[in-house]
Design a protein that fits this description.
The chain is mainly alpha-helical. The protein is built from four helices and no strands.
Length: 86
């Protein structure tokens, strides 16, 4: 009976808790921040150049960044482009 509880505890710890905690490690936070900055710069250049076709690197970053941050980065880039041309 105890072995089942220990197994259940280990499974939950390895599949749910540790991956969630790993997202808060400094290395992962820094990687995400670098991805966000790079995507912001690429999207900003795309808007300035009036290019409708995203390049390969932009598409790769879109797959790695979650939807909320993707929308936030795009909106801030759009605001910066608006201020850039004003």
């Amino acid at each position: 009976y105890i072995f089942r509880w220990k197994f259940a505890y280990t499974v939950i710890l390895n599949e749910q808790v540790r991956p969630h905690l790993a997202s808060f490690k400094w290395e992962n936070v820094k990687e995400n921040l670098n991805r966000h900055k790079e995507y912001h710069e690429l999207y900003f250049q795309q808007l300035i150049n009036h290019s409708s076709k995203p390049d390969k690197r932009t598409q790769e970053l879109e797959k790695q960044i979650d939807a909320f941050n993707l929308l936030y980065i795009r909106r801030t880039a759009q605001i910066e482009v608006k201020n850039f041309f004003s």
